[in-house]
Amino acid sequence: MRNKKINIGNYTLLLATVVIGLFMGMKNSQFFQLSNMLEILKTASIVGLMSLGVLFPSATGEIDFSIGAQLSLAAVVVGRLMDAGVAGNNYFVCALIAIAASALMGFVNSVLIVRIKMPSFVATYGLAMTVEGILIYFTNNTYYFSSNWTPAFTAIGHNTLAGIPIAAIIFVVLGIIVWIFVDRTRTGRYFSVGSNANACNNVGIRITKEKTIAFVLCGVLCGIAGIINSSIAGNVTATMGSDNLMNAMAALYLGATFWKPGVFNSGMLYCSSSYGSDLQWSGYDRSIFLHEKRHPWRNSDHCCRHHCSDP
Description:
This protein has helices spanning 12-27, 34-59, 67-84, 91-115, 120-139, 155-158, 166-184, 186-189, 197-202, 207-233, 245-257, 262-281, 286-294, and strands spanning 160-161, 164-165. By secondary structure, the protein is an all-alpha fold.
């Protein structure tokens, strides 16, 4: 029996992550602290979930440039609903509604692309700009927060389970579910109609149905990313998703090029280098840096639409 050759190229991304991590660790001893490693994993969950979401439309031969706006939509919706006291300020209900809003945006994308036959680049980018404009109006184009928000709003972003951030656990669990669904189920394999749409249509695969489901699933995962992102930040903005758009796209395509669990590696690569740079050049303790990112209104009297009652 011939020995199976190991293709080093498949592990290039993983090796790059390790090398960058070692370099950052040598430059700053705080990098390898457990608290920092957990922060990296937690932040990687946002980029990772967006990448998992856009995986579905990409498998069907389309592209979705609205994933950032979907994240922002979910974040703003949950923030506004909590501020309005919907469902008795029940965060779980508000979060479900926000994720449903993001999924609806994915469905609108599918209608524009599958039914109206618009190019996916034009449809998704145009819808993203439209939604962002609406969100800018509702957030007054600034950091939006409210003293009406309950502690549950930041629970997912800052609480842990057995010492592991809940956000990271959600990402890993959803990543495993997506992997099993796409790689181990017949329905998941049908999403790969982008490789040869005509052949798939000839064997009875309903391409329009698969593309619709793909865009809706993308909206759901990006909506969950928006819930996590807003919980970590402690505030919402109209463009918080767009800030990670290219990072998520890069994670997806790097993941498709290298080792199979590439989205995880790509997210960790991005976050490792980003957090390492923060530690190396900012001159701040990591906890202080995160504190300032979560509560930027403490440094300004007019940066938010609603003023916090916290001291």
